[in-house]
Write a structure and sequence with these properties.
single chain, 180 residues, mainly beta, Pnp Oxidase, Chain A, 4 helices
């Protein structure tokens, strides 16, 4: 069956979903969910995500040069959804979603305390890619909730991170399988 090219990305599921938090130069925090996200480099550590160029996230990153990638768990689903609403610039989605801002160690943008993990990132590059902007950030600090990363292994069954299927549909890890 042939697929309409406007739907191609809907077959790349599930996609990891993250909550990107930023701050404006006026000091107002912002958070938005993204599922167009990927590791971009191991050494140096870099993460990339794609965004609509008109998002407040993009303007804040351009102003401050940094952002935080927060990994939401299942208990953050409704708050994540609230952060995806279209609030006017100057309104903190973090506060609207009743999440807790946590001061970052090495950047201006806040972390979200409820997240399973947080990566503080400094802007490395931005690239135009069709109707999106690809943002690449260098990870300068990272934290994960105790007990989720043991002996170099992450336990997604215990963490229960959200993955995006599409629209308002998400999924959770069900089991771990090994290749031969």
């Amino acid at each position: 069956m042939k697929i309409e090219l406007s739907y191609w990305y809907k077959l790349l599921v599930p996609r990891a979903v993250v909550l990107i938090s930023t701050v404006s130069k006026q000091g107002v925090s912002n958070a938005a969910p993204f599922s167009f996200v990927m590791p971009a480099s191991v050494e140096p550590p870099m993460i990339a995500f794609a965004s609509d160029p008109d998002h407040h996230t993009i303007s804040n990153i351009r102003e401050t040069g940094d952002f935080t990638v927060n990994i939401p768990g299942v208990d953050m689903l409704n708050q994540l959804w609230t952060c995806g609403e279209d609030f006017p610039k100057g309104v903190s989605e973090i506060r609207k979603a009743h999440l807790t801002e946590q001061k970052s160690k090495k950047i201006k943008s806040p972390k979200v305390a409820e997240a399973l993990a947080q990566f503080e990132c400094k802007l490395e590059a931005m690239y135009e890619a069709g109707d999106h902007i690809i943002v690449v950030g260098r990870v300068v600090d990272g934290e994960v909730k105790r007990g989720l990363f043991v002996k170099g292994k992450y336990n997604p069954l215990k963490a229960r991170p959200l993955s995006h299927v599409g629209g308002n549909e998400f999924t959770l890890p069900e089991k771990i399988i090994n290749a031969i």
